[in-house]
Amino acid sequence: MFSVGEIDVKGLRQFENMLGALGAEAPKAVNRAINRTGDMAKTQVVKELARQTGLPQKLIRRSVKVTRSSWTHLEYQLHSAGGDVSLKYFKKRETDEGVRAYLGDQRGWDWFAESFFRAGRWPRPRQQISWSHGHVFVRVGGRTDLEKVTSGVFIPIEMVEGATAKAFEDSVTNNLPRRLDHEISRALGL
Fold this sequence. Notes:
With 190 residues, the protein is an alpha+beta fold. It folds into two domains: 2-81 and 155-188, no CATH class; 86-152, no CATH class. 41% of the residues lie in helices and 24% in strands. The protein is built from six helices and 13 strands. The strands form five sheets. The protein has a three-stranded antiparallel sheet. Strands 5-6-7 form a three-stranded antiparallel sheet. It has a three-stranded antiparallel sheet with strand order 8-11-12, with no helix packed on it. The longest helix has 28 residues, at 26-53.
């Protein structure tokens, strides 16, 4: 989970006098600045997380939830929940020896032996399995004993590690002072 309130942004001391001049309007200006900065940081997190995991941005946007700042609680949070992501959501290719899937920039293409997501004899034209909904399976016993194959990618863990965490911190560090200056100037009528 990320929170804008946890990032130490240097240079915010310069705004103390201006916030004091705003009086009761200060929390509103800070709230708007935090929410705008948080939205900009979320955009960077989604892009970097998609690059890091190999998942489509549409899926990442669905899994990353936001708790926005309010006048009384000045904190913007990004959080995600979930387990091991199914291979269904990755770029996957079926070969005669199994399925290859692209698991992001760090892991690259990974091979899952004896797995499949289509039916029919190899190499004849194979058909999608109507009941599988695109999932990748491997046989664990007899003909009908199938198990879904997962990727080993956990979105909540990937979100707080590596390039994604750095993208969040950089975005907040760069944008929060600028947005705060803008909102204070707007409230003061400058």
